[in-house]
Design a protein that fits this description.
Distance between the termini: 46 Å
Structural class: alpha+beta
CATH architecture of one domain: 4-Layer Sandwich
Helix content: 25-40%
Radius of gyration: 22 Å
Number of helices: 17
CATH topology of one domain: Glutamine Phosphoribosylpyrophosphate, subunit 1, domain 1
Shape: globular
CATH class of one domain: Alpha Beta
């Protein structure tokens, strides 16, 4: 069976499945928790509970992060899943070193720089053509082998249990399903799973995905090779190349280019993290193909070069950093990362920030290693490409002081909309993160085996060599500004971490208008418009998770209080 939906009133009759009682209200999530022995924050209570259970049984932060990520593939399937990808930034307390793992999806070998030219963006999203070679399973496997203590089979067990017994449908899951219903109905496997009786599952019902439970179970038994060249991989490729379109559908669904050899060739990669110093802090992030570490880091450097930092300066530093991101950052050789993150380049860029918003768009700078007092930029600005607003982020710390910030995604809400028949897994549409073109010289044009540029920005902050904070967010290209604004809220403007996450947000990505949440506009719009800024409303920006060490062993975990339905923060113990 693809799925089973139990009305809330019928749940008690299936006690053998150990399904928690459902009601009109989903289980309560707490956005802030403080305590000892380890902590976690995710968007979802089931995922947070799985991570805490792993920590309590002696697992470490990596074990818990993989377990939580797999559960999110069940309860947040429109944002994450084993057919997606992601990035981990991990601090190993024993080695006293930061490691990063790149599990970003790759383009098939048959994809070239003109593959997406002339294709409408929405048509590219809902197609086999948008599906990148999945990286999440390889990411989990590499993380567990290098840094974990559990096997993949053990780490997947909580997700098997949640997929089998079900979870209570909340308003967010219902609304996301409803928003995707028009395209979900155009694929037989997707409609059967997510549109029972032709409609989204009602809030308060219990949603089960027994096919996904079986897929996780088999993956744990057979190992990653089952995807990367085995039977599951064959089924993924068949779905990409021949999407299961509902008879009578008028949607133009383009077939994809993925081959089984693309899956066999995939590797998750250990990369050196980015690092910048901000005040007395060291900030570590993810290097290309993510633009998160470079763009957050450059903006922090620009701000540190200014005599004072307010919201105007935050928006202008973001504008400049995004201009440089578009010009220089992608999965290409020779990204000038050291210069983009150099103090000299930051000072040259900072001198462009005055009392009023600069003209749109800001041109990129020249990170050539030779910096004057105030060089006028001469390049051409690159428009911000469309990126899906979803993705998910989680943070975990364990009793030994290991810390991980982990972004995982299938790109747009619901990925490409296509469930692999019989497997309960949505495919990603990650390849639409490439520039569609034509755009000669763009570092983010598609290419064989290339990884699309990402905005995911899992971030770790250190003080005097010790981790003090971990943070990240979903939100497509707004991820970078969300993380940057949280860091400024915490370290520049004196907010505590819960306040820093809850504060209203604005995002300037070298666009004509700054997008901002209603509460931000109400409080700051008039003042910033007087300085030349122009605004457009955005009801919700990001859905961050973070944690902070309040002392050597006491941790505060923080999730969103309201955005995307609010998140779930838990600790191993509230007492020493």
């Amino acid at each position: 069976m693809r799925r089973v939906i139990f009305p809330a009133a019928a749940v008690l009759a299936v006690s053998l499945l150990h399904v928690p009682p459902a009601s009109a209200d989903p289980p309560r999530k707490t956005p802030v928790a403080e305590g000892y022995g380890g902590a976690v924050a995710t968007v979802d209570l089931e995922a947070s509970k799985a991570a805490i259970a792993v920590l309590r049984k002696g697992g470490n932060a990596v074990d818990a992060a993989v377990a939580a990520g797999a559960v999110l593939g069940v309860t947040e399937p429109y944002s994450a899943g084993l057919a997606g990808g992601g990035f981990m930034v991990y601090y190993d307390a024993r080695k006293r070193k930061v490691f990063t793992i790149d599990g970003r999806e790759t383009a098939p070998k048959a994809m070239g720089p003109t593959t997406f030219e002339g294709i409408p963006f929405d048509e590219g999203v809902t197609s086999g053509l948008s599906a990148g070679v999945p990286g999440t399973v390889a990411n989990w496997d590499l993380a567990l082998r290098r840094f974990g203590t559990l096997s993949l089979r053990q780490a997947l067990q909580p997700a098997v249990e949640v997929a089998s017994r079900g979870f209570v449908v909340d308003q967010t899951f219902h609304d996301q399903t409803a928003a995707n219903a028009d395209r979900f109905k155009d694929f037989t496997s997707t409609a059967e799973l997510y549109l029972p009786n032709g409609a989204p599952p009602p809030v308060g019902s219990v949603f089960r995905n027994p096919e996904l439970a079986a897929t996780y179970r088999e993956l744990g038994r057979r190992g990653p090779e089952w995807l990367y060249g085995g039977q599951l991989g064959k089924e993924v490729v068949a779905t990409v190349k021949r999407p299961p379109v509902t008879p009578g559908s008028t949607r133009n669904v383009r077939p994809g280019l993925m081959e089984l050899s693309d899956l066999r060739d995939y590797r998750a990669l250990l990369r050196e993290p980015t690092k910048v110093s901000y005040k007395n802090l060291d900030v570590y992030g993810m290097a290309p193909p993510s633009s998160g570490g470079s763009t957050v880091g450059e903006a922090l450097n620009i701000l540190e070069a200014l005599p004072e930092v307010g919201l105007h300066e935050y928006l202008e530093a973001s504008r400049l950093a995004y201009a440089d991101r578009g010009q220089y950052v992608g999965d290409i050789p020779g990204v000038p990362l050291d210069e983009l993150l150099s103090d000299g380049f930051a000072k040259e860029r900072a001198c462009l920030i005055g009392e009023r918003a600069m003209p749109h768009p800001a041109a990129p700078g020249d990170p050539d290693g030779s910096y004057g007092p105030c060089a006028e930029p001469g390049g051409t600005a690159t428009p911000v490409a469309k990126e899906g607003p979803e993705t998910t982020h989680l943070v975990v710390a364990d009793r030994w002081g290991n810390v991980i910030a982990y972004n995982l995604t299938i790109e747009s809400t619901g990925g490409n909309g296509i469930v692999v028949p019989g497997r309960g897994v949505l495919l990603n549409n990650e390849l639409t993160d490439f520039t569609f073109g034509p755009a000669p010289g763009d570092p983010n044009l598609p290419g064989p085996g290339k990884r699309p540029r990402s905005s995911m920005a899992p971030t770790l902050v250190f003080e005097k060599g010790r981790p003090v904070l971990a943070v990240g967010s979903p939100g497509g290209s707004t991820i970078i500004t969300t993380v940057l604004q949280i860091l400024l809220n915490r370290y520049e403007w004196g907010m505590d971490l819960p306040e820093a996450l809850a504060a209203p947000r604005a995002t300037q990505r070298n666009t004509a208008q700054t997008q901002a949440e209603p509460a931000f506009l109400q409080k700051y719009q008039a003042e910033l418009e007087a300085q030349g800024h122009s605004f457009a409303g955005n009801p919700e920006i990001g859905a961050a998770t973070a944690l902070e060490f309040l002392s050597r062993d006491r941790v505060q975990a923080v999730a969103e209080p309201t955005r995307r339905g609010g998140g779930s923060a838990l600790v191993v113990s509230s007492r020493r």
